[in-house]
Amino acid sequence: MQFLSRWDSQRLSTTIRGIPLVEGVATQDIASQRWSPAHGDLALPALTLDEAAFAANRDLFLKWCANAGVAVAPHAKTPMSPELARSLRAAGAWGTTVANIQQAAVLLASGERRLLLANEIGGLAAGRRLGALLSAYPDVEFHAFADSPAAVTALAEAARIAGRGELSVLVELGAGRAGARDRAAVEATIAAVLAADRLVLGGVATYEGAVATPDIDATLRAISILMERTMETFALVRAAAPQRPLIMSAGGSAYFDIVANALAPVALADGNASVLLRSGALFFADHGIYARAFAEIDRRGGLLVDGLQHSALASFRPALTLWAEVLSRPEDELAIAGFGMRDASFDQGLPVPLRVVRDGVEQQGLAARLTVTRLNDQHAFLSVAPDAALAVGDIIAFGISHPCTCLDRWRIIFGLDADGVVTRALPTQFG
């Protein structure tokens, strides 16, 4: 039997969280088991993906991109699931974004052939590692970032070792994180690319999320300034590479509308350039940081698709659910659930109780009377409203905040159909 991913020599029940205590189950047999986390069929805690919500988010965003005149290379660092990356590309994504050489290796091995490495790689040692990787995939279209002559030198080493005639470099400018800070640094980076063997100017890049602050107005001003700098840098790159097709890349999952509004007209006027977003988390959405970001998008006018306005908050549906069991009711207003910091994101907000199920029956209104107050490694502390009838053994479905730092805690996520039944198991490849 063909088992999941790299654990194919071991029984799933002994290696993967969430798999029930049964004999090893082959990939193609997962759906036939009819497992349901709400009914206690999975070993808890478990993380699930609402397949319909993910597909709806994907289709909405890709349609919005087409209407906005931009493309998207979804950031693979969010799920690190080659299967999900493949499904996004098959639905119309330009390609895939990765954050480092290790992620590039995973996606290349899975068959992806158009990658954007949205980061500097490091020094010459990293250049040699990237070169060795690319030498095994001579057909891949590959773009990487550089914000200094030193970064360019590392990429030139990669191109040399890979034996590539051309390696595309996007000049990164930025604030708050990596990226050239001024025109002199941009010009030095451009000059280094032009002087290097085997490198070509591929465009410009930035990341607007790095300038975000808790002050919404200050954030919008900072992003506006960054977009102006991006357009100025693009003009410098275009002057240095007058004939090449160029990329302008920016756009995470919170401010993609601002990026598109600023950069798409520049690409259109240029006639030989494209805007490439790198949004990844929005395909999963959430009950926290991105729910708040979508509400802000609505305050900026929402999403225009085929001439109709759509609410981002109402349209993007949270697709991830964390399931856990009540382990203890040691005090009247306290419950301990069986998950913790090793299972859930908590950097952008604690999980939110959504549903409580007892013996397969949903307990209406009970989730609203619960609040997660803190997490230990493997325990969640829930404040319970007085007289709320929460019992040991109840199964609670939680919404999460920040998909990126939740998914990376799981080696397997389970796809669910509209009835809450497991359709497949999706391996993640975080290393």
From TrEMBL:
<dbReference type="InterPro" id="IPR051466">
    <property type="entry name" value="D-amino_acid_metab_enzyme"/>
</dbReference>
<dbReference type="InterPro" id="IPR001608">
    <property type="entry name" value="Ala_racemase_N"/>
</dbReference>
<keyword id="KW-0456">Lyase</keyword>
<dbReference type="GO" id="GO:0016829">
    <property type="term" value="F:lyase activity"/>
</dbReference>
<feature type="domain" description="D-serine dehydratase-like">
    <location>
        <begin position="319"/>
        <end position="417"/>
    </location>
</feature>
<dbReference type="Pfam" id="PF14031">
    <property type="entry name" value="D-ser_dehydrat"/>
</dbReference>
<comment type="similarity">
    <text>Belongs to the DSD1 family.</text>
</comment>
<dbReference type="InterPro" id="IPR029066">
    <property type="entry name" value="PLP-binding_barrel"/>
</dbReference>
<protein>
    <submittedName>
        <fullName>D-serine dehydratase</fullName>
    </submittedName>
</protein>
<dbReference type="Pfam" id="PF01168">
    <property type="entry name" value="Ala_racemase_N"/>
</dbReference>
<dbReference type="InterPro" id="IPR026956">
    <property type="entry name" value="D-ser_dehydrat-like_dom"/>
</dbReference>
<dbReference type="InterPro" id="IPR042208">
    <property type="entry name" value="D-ser_dehydrat-like_sf"/>
</dbReference>
